[in-house]
Automatic annotation (TrEMBL):
Annotated signal sequence range: 1-25
Pfam families reported for this sequence: LRR_1 (PF00560), PK_Tyr_Ser-Thr (PF07714)
Keywords for this protein: Cell membrane, Glycoprotein, Leucine-rich repeat, Membrane, Receptor, Repeat, Signal, Transmembrane, Transmembrane helix
Domain of life: Eukaryota
Sequence intervals crossing the membrane: 387-410
Record-linked InterPro entries: Kinase-like_dom_sf, Leu-rich_rpt, LRR_dom_sf, Prot_kinase_dom, Ser-Thr/Tyr_kinase_cat_dom
Bilayer topology: Single-pass type I membrane protein
This protein's record includes keyword Signal: yes
SUPFAM superfamilies: L domain-like, Protein kinase-like (PK-like)
Subcellular localization(s) per the UniProt record: Cell membrane
Family of this protein: Belongs to the RLP family.
Protein name: Protein kinase domain-containing protein
Amino acid sequence: MAKAFQYSAILLCVVLGVLISGSDQLQSSQGETLLRIQRILNYPSALSSWNSTTDFCNTEPDASVTVVCYENSITQMHIIGNRGTPLLPRNFSIDSFFTTLVGLPDLKVLTLVSLGLWGPLPGKISRFSSLEILNVSSNFLYDAVPQEVSSLATLQSLVLDDNMFAGEVPYWIGSLPVLSVLSLKKNMLNGSLPDSLSNLDNLRVLELSNNYFRGEIPDLSRLTNLQVLDLEDNAFGPKFPLLGNKLISLVLSKNKFRDGLPAEVTSYYQLQRLDLSNNKFVGPFPQSLFSLPSVTYLNVADNKFTGMLFENQSCSADLEFVDLSSNLMTGKLPNCLLRDSNKKVLYAANCLATGDENQHPITFCRNEALAVGILPQRKKRKASTETIAFCVAGGIAGGIAIVGLIYLAVRKVKSRKTIERPNTRTIAESASAGYPSKLLSDARYVSQTTKLGALGLPPYRTFSLEEIEEATNNFDTSAFMGEGSQGQMYRGQLKDGSFVAIRCLKLKKSHSTQNLMNHIELISKLRHRHLVSALGHCFEFYLDDSSVSRIFLVFEYVPNGTLRSWISGGHVRQNFPWTHRIAAAIGVAKGIQFLHTGIVPGVYSNNLKITDVLLDQNLVAKISSYNLPLLAENKGMVVHGTSSGASKDLSTSARLDLTADIF
């Protein structure tokens, strides 16, 4: 049957740019503009295939060059040269180059990386009134960032890394209404940061490392969407900045901070990377940082942190790297840092009772603490008793917090349904209109906020139909896993030996290519440690009008069954101890959090049940059922659950069953 179907359909498994541009015929003037750009750039190797007969809109993109067209006009252009490309010849004119670029007036995405561009960034950049993403990193651009950039009202991503821009960050930067990414790393910028940064309500990524900034950081606590803040290698300080609590990555290393850490740091529950190394932070080290629920990387080396560490301190299960070196800490390393060989722990040049020769005597840390004005605790026995009592109380509170975390996560889904109850149409419009295609396409700067959760997965890619057929043995009945409201599901094995789950979905002809690709862009971001992650997709097209007839969504295969089967189903292999139940509860909460806040737009109305949680070979909990707008739109309804057909709304009490079932 599969062989016969090939004669009636054409398989075109291609990437996003080609799908969008497949039917466009480029204006001849814009084709000539591209050839002039090739000449001005001195015929770089990345553009060696361009000539007068090139069909720019229908050329398959690669890692170096991508041209995307829409309605006979170029809307995206990515040109990435070789790393270390030298300056263009002396006869190169940056002004003439941008005069030529203006011949592409509909550009929304412009990437010019490692091309040897030199000179000041021209004010003509303001003529690209529709520009959403500008990336001119790894060139030799200098002088101040031109004020004309402030007129780009639709600019969402500004990446000027690895150039020679100088001067201060201009005050007008806060007037860009939808800016979500600002990356100015590795330049010669100086001075203090403007207070107007706090006006960037949509800012998610702020990267200013390796410059010459100094002074205090403005109040950033109003930036409630900020997830990545990198200020490494400047002269900021002395006070710790005021920040929001949704940070995923915070890097303040190699600056001049010398205060103690505020208590708010221990409430950064989404924080995965914290680097405070090479400063002069003082005061007690907050040991609760070890147990932040999401933390994987913790570096506080080369500071003046004091305090006694305790063996019974708890640690996050995801913690992979800890560096406590060159501080003034005493006591003993927590056992949770030592018993896991997968954790890399550095602790030299403290006063810890480890038996290692690379520790100072305890008197050294006491004298150094006095030198920086930190008085040691006098009543050691009482202090130790209080600390141990605090740890016990903290452990009890932590257990309650875990239950509360699951309750709040599932309650959030219910509250959204009660207040907004988004339907399929709303979600589809949000994907296509509220967040333009390629909004977060600059993977090195934006997608890192989502990739932080995707560990050990191959890159998301397009599969060919031959791969899908080979993996399922031509959709053999032995590979068939079931059929439900979200299509047929098959188990497959790829050439590399890895197993996958393949969902086959027949689409209505009402799907436009643009909307479909917006959905695929969202699906490609569903990659997280606690989700059954998407690995790729494949399209089939109708022969008559080239609209999509079937889509195959490829997900990772999770072999250990459902969480319910381990907890209440009497799993044949082993019991499910409390430590695993707690880890599963935290994992589910992290998965829900990622669906809500880790991608744009978020995925809601998931009606999560304990049967929707699977366990992998390491007994890591993964959410297998979440509301994909593509699947919901195809059915004309909001789809919940996995293969149970029509969905049911779960009451608040039913949602609490998820927590009750785990514990």
